[in-house]
Write a structure and sequence with these properties.
This protein has about 375 residues and is α/β, with parallel strands linked by helices. About 65% of the residues lie in helices and about 5% in strands.
């Protein structure tokens, strides 16, 4: 035990001795949490809206005013012809073109229906889908108002319109604040990347400076060396988690409904998975540059297939199967369940034991792959 404590002491001294690494470890992750939580959002705002009003009627003006009153649309221009509007979209100055045909109001009054032309810039397919939902909602609201006005009088008799009103109830995020959803995920991202990169470059650094050969000829056992090397980064991961949770609560006001101890329990086991992957990478690379590239490859793969930015349910079947082997997937799900839903251990027991198995298997394989020669 004394040997392990001496190695841990050495590692902490080595970390704090490197002044250039301290900002990377402690300051940059916090800056990233503040920036990414504000910037990373699937909300589509400031949509550049334009229109072609060929009718110039009260109905067409009312429809346009609904778009202008929306917080999601920003009216850029009014075009006289479709050709001018198409050129503007080709240049990227507008995102949506609404074309109102001639006799729009007259057609509504006569036939009780009318057609509209809507062109959406769909280079970004996800954004275009969201924009289409916004447009459909505004047109549906306009249509409801028009139909209500048309139904007021029938054969000279006033009819009181009866509308069905749906009152939504938003659970776990009543204000629909996207930061409430993103901040826990970004915190997972930072804890994972910091632990993975530092652990993957740890033993490689010893190889580059030539101290690994000196350690290998000492009586230090393999497990003592590995525990001593990885334990400081396990502690650092928990420190980053602690500071991140404080920022999430004080700055972003993320609700914390569940037991925070459960988050630390799960993170403690999860970090063994990440550190085991970093150790395995470190064992099979010769330079820190190689370790960084391989760690980055795995990090990007894990992050994109974790459900952090893209819902797992939207992925193809084969991709959903692969995500079952992705540890970040479970961490993202668990931290949101505990913070936002107040989940108990029984609710997270299945992913907890999966991560525990991954930790045991990956670290066992990583320790086996480390070659120590006496």
């Amino acid at each position: 035990m004394k040997t392990i404590l001496f190695i841990i002491q050495k590692e902490f001294r080595q970390i704090f001795r490197n002044k250039s690494m301290l900002p990377i470890i402690f300051i940059l992750p916090l800056v990233q949490l503040l920036i990414l939580s504000n910037a990373a959002s699937f909300e589509v705002k400031n949509i550049k809206f334009s229109y072609i009003d060929n009718d110039h009627s009260a109905a067409s003006r009312e429809l346009i005013s609904k778009f202008q009153a929306s917080n999601y649309f920003k009216t850029i221009a009014h075009f006289s012809t479709k050709k001018e509007a198409n050129l503007a979209m080709q240049k990227g100055t507008v995102d949506v073109i609404l074309e109102i045909p001639n006799y729009f109001e007259r057609t509504i009054l006569k036939d009780k229906k009318a057609s509209l032309s809507v062109s959406i810039n769909a280079i970004d397919g996800a954004a275009a889908g969201v924009e289409n939902v916004y447009i459909s909602q505004i047109i549906a609201s306009f249509n409801q108002n028009i139909q209500t006005q048309l139904m007021r009088y029938t054969d000279g008799t006033f009819i009181q319109p009866e509308n069905i009103i749906a009152i939504p109830s938003f659970w776990y995020n009543k204000t629909l604040n996207y930061k409430t959803f993103m901040v826990p995920g970004i915190l997972v991202l930072l804890v994972t990347m910091l632990s993975l990169f530092l652990s993957s470059m740890n033993i490689v650094r010893e190889k580059e400076i030539g101290t690994l050969e000196q350690i290998n000829v000492t009586p230090i056992k393999k497990h003592q060396f590995i525990i001593g090397k990885l334990f400081p980064f396990w502690v650092l991961g928990l420190i980053i988690l602690t500071v991140g949770l404080l920022i999430a609560k004080t700055i972003f006001n993320v609700p914390m409904l569940g037991n925070i101890g459960l988050i630390y329990l799960f993170t403690s086991v999860y970090l063994f998975v990440v550190l085991g992957i970093g150790l395995f990478i470190s064992n099979h690379t010769e330079t820190q540059q190689q370790a960084m590239f391989i760690a980055w490859f795995f990090a990007v793969l894990f992050i994109l297939m974790s459900g952090l930015f893209t819902p797992i349910e939207s992925m193809p079947g084969w991709a959903q199967t692969i995500t079952l082997f992705n540890p970040i997937r479970y961490y993202v799900t668990i931290i949101r369940m505990i913070l936002l839903k107040g989940a108990s251990f029984s609710d997270i027991s299945t992913p907890f034991f999966i991560i525990a198995f991954y930790a045991f298997a990956i670290n066992g394989f990583a320790v086996w792959s480390y070659k120590k020669t006496n």
